[in-house]
Amino acid sequence: MNNDTICALATANGVGALGIIRVSGNDAIPVVQKSFPGKNLSKQKSHTIHYGYFMEGEETIDEVMLSIFLAPKSFTTENSVEIAFHGSPHIGKRILETLIKNGARMAKAGEFTLRAFMNGRIDLSQAEAIADVIASENEASRKVAISQLKGGITNEISLLRTDLLNFVSLIELELDFAEEDVEFADRTALTQLLNKIEVKLHSLIESFQYGNAIKNGTAVAIIGKPNAGKSTLLNALLKEERAIVSNIAGTTRDTIEEILHIKGHAFRLIDTAGLRETVDEIEAIGVKKAKEKVENANILVYLTDAGTEDFSEDIEMIKSLLRDDLKLIICATKIDEVVPTQYEKAEDVFRKEIAHEFDFITISAVENQNVQDLKNELSSYVEQLKASENNVVITNQRHFEALQKSLNAVHKVNEAITFRISTELLAYELRNALEHLGEISGEVTNDEVLGNIFSKFCIGK
């Protein structure tokens, strides 16, 4: 990273009431001053707003408001200026072109946040949390992202790392006095600390399933034979005519995906082609896609017509789709067309034939009967993933992998103590554990990791 003065549009592209352009760097104020003749910006206090005209030579480009943030009290810790202009894309383009002529350059993706990280204002997990806040699409993901932005995971990791670092120092000291065969680090106390760290790491790792559901949504595959009511159910859940409904078998030939929010959680509903043997080439592709979607789903909602006489085909289909980690909900549909004894019989049949745990719900999507029961089951699935005793939730794949590596390193340290392996190897494994924990906050990192993280940010952030 260098000290170039950078600029970029911070608001979304397109027409709006206002747009904002950010400028940051040692020369941010002189660069903007060249186009803002009405006031001497170098004499203004930090966190002040100034009205005037943004100029290119003698030409007025727009009437603007400038917000000044002096180092180190800015997002990047550098001198920064934010230019609020009337939200015309053309005006924004003209202002950026002028700033570049004045000595700035266009910012790269995530460069403002990268500078905040490199200058020590935030750690790496907080930088990633900023991207998560921007991308949050539901209340649960927003809350978790804000918690991470406040340093939630960093605080947890720092406590573990500090305790571990004390023992590493003592082990390193032993290496300096190797010839005297002395132990400065109490192995019993170290084992107790490692057990404590192991419990905490396990708790954080287990929270990832819940965190992933919050961040990316829970995939729900709606499966069943043709005309079981899959598309009707999708429309009822979404409260709109999203899928074509017809009495003709095989109407849905491709998958339809929509987002449904329930109690602050996002669910990715996938309506699929009816499962059956078919000679229709296009429908067969749809059936194949349906099975593929189940392989990647968290929840399988299998629909069966409550009026069916023989459920053997449904049972065989369900058995072929099951996985140990798949939540199964069987819905007997069209209950408005049958008597209760029919769907009671259906439940008895499925309970006898399917060993996998499942919930059984009876619904009429047309009459909107018991659809809320299905929503409650979906919501309950996500809530059960959350470990109540753990306030920090892991949502980031990079953090998850670093925690797994840390846990593996802790196991190796424990083995080294148990089998009284050499102090050199013990020190090596301890350093490994420290390094993997440090990867989360960015205390240990490399340019490739940074490049991958910040390349996913928008240009103005």
Any idea what the radius of gyration is? Answer: 29 Å
Kindly name the structural category: alpha/beta
Distance between the termini: 16 Å
Number of strands: 12
User: Can you list the strand order of the major beta sheet?
Assistant: 3-4-5-2-1-6
Number of helices: 15
Query: What is the mean pLDDT?
Result: 83
Binding site for GTP: 227-232, 246-252, 271-274
Domain TrmE-type G: 217-383
Binding site for K(+): 227, 246, 248, 251
Binding site for Mg(2+): 231, 252
Please give the structural blueprint.
Layout: E1 6-9, E2 18-24, H1 28-33, E3 48-56, E4 59-69, E5 80-86, H2 89-101, E6 105-106, H3 111-118, H4 124-135, H5 139-149, H6 152-176, H7 187-216, E7 218-224, H8 230-238, E8 256-262, E9 265-271, H9 281-295, E10 299-305, H10 312-321, E11 327-333, H11 340-353, E12 358-362, H12 371-385, H13 397-418, H14 423-441, H15 447-454
Structure characterization notes:
The protein is of the alpha/beta class. 47% of the residues lie in helices and 17% in strands. It is built from 15 helices and twelve strands. It has helices spanning 28-33, 89-101, 111-118, 124-135, 139-149, 152-176, 187-216, 230-238, 281-295, 312-321, 340-353, 371-385, 397-418, 423-441, 447-454, and strands spanning 6-9, 18-24, 48-56, 59-69, 80-86, 105-106, 218-224, 256-262, 265-271, 299-305, 327-333, 358-362. Strands 3-4-5-2-1-6 form a six-stranded mixed beta sheet. Strands 8-9-7-10-11-12 form a six-stranded mixed beta sheet, with helices on both faces. It is flat. It starts with 5 loop residues before the first strand and ends in a 7-residue tail after the last helix. Exhibits a very high intrinsic GTPase hydrolysis rate. Involved in the addition of a carboxymethylaminomethyl (cmnm) group at the wobble position (U34) of certain tRNAs, forming tRNA-cmnm(5)s(2)U34. Its EC number is 3.6.-.-.
